[in-house]
Amino acid sequence: MSSSQFRYTQTPSKVVHLRNLPWECVEEELIDLCKRFGKIVNTKTNVGANRNQAFVEFAELNQAISMVSYYASSSEPAQIRGKTIYIQYSNRHEIVNNQSPGEVPGNVLLVTFEGVESHHVSIDVIHLVFSAFGFVHKIATFEKAAGFQALVQFTDVETASAARSALDGRSIPKYLLPEHVASCNLRMSYSAHTDLNIKFQSHRSRDYTNPYLPVNHTAMDGSMQPALGADGKKVETQSNVLLALIENMQYAVTVDVLHTVFSAYGTVQKIAIFEKNGSTQALIQYSDIATAAIAKEALEGHCIYDGGYCKLRLSYSRHTDLNVKVHKIGCFLELWERD
């Protein structure tokens, strides 16, 4: 028997530490392995970064000694689902479960927004507030009996804990709320989730790690049915990103030219120019839908140069946040991002 499997010099304890457990080992499996050595009074499973460790507490010290001694001298190792389990005494003398599930630190926060309804706090406001403490990976919002809530996923436990310590019990700054909303207090606990499953970008959920995730257009504007105009035709779903088709392009249209034209109606965050189907097109990103709508109404059919040259045909893009990482000059693709 390998001497590395057991620690003979450890001080005996009623609590036994088990390592190398199979993935998501459940309490029943631990009890089946340990119960023949004595009465089990407590367990703690899925411990450690790989969730492959556990603790078992016996009622009496001699019961824990019996188990550790047995497997130390046995030719048959302790096994669960065919995996060899390494057993030793714990340096703790009892298992203390004094934290409720919401108090066990994790990288995902459960946030309750008090004093508001779901349409009062946008997902962009939530992202703005929480990204002050670190990179926000994902956000999912929903309504429960407790009210409007959100799950906010950070990279690690430390970042989530810092955000919780700073924001729990505080109010969202008033300038980020509608004028008629007096306040919005934040109540937070830790979620048992570690990685949120976001299937598409919408006004209720965002994955900031995957810019290629599909956009649910009906979810983006909060409706289940496409909106129809007075003529019965489908109304275009609005977006903060405009798609510009440039017609009759007799002169060069650069990122700087587009920035000059479109920034007259609000702050332009990002621009991308590209060639598609033999024509020059561009994506122009504003901070919000309202600004993009004003620019679209004002510039649709507008000619950048006199004489009808470089006419703009505008529509809303399905994108909400352009993935701009480079600025290339002298090729078909030019990207610009506001500092």
Automatic annotation (TrEMBL):
Record-given protein name: Polypyrimidine tract-binding protein homolog 1 isoform X2
Gene encoding the protein = LOC108859433
Role summary: Plays a role in pre-mRNA splicing. Binds to the polypyrimidine tract of introns. May promote the binding of U2 snRNP to pre-mRNA.
Does the keyword section mention Repeat?
Answer: yes
Q: For this UniProt entry, what is the primary localization, expressed as one broad class? A: nucleus
Q: Does the UniProt entry include the keyword Iron?
A: no
What's a single GO BP term from this record? mRNA processing
User: What GO annotations for molecular function exist for this entry?
Assistant: mRNA binding
* Record's subcellular location: Nucleus
Species name? Raphanus sativus
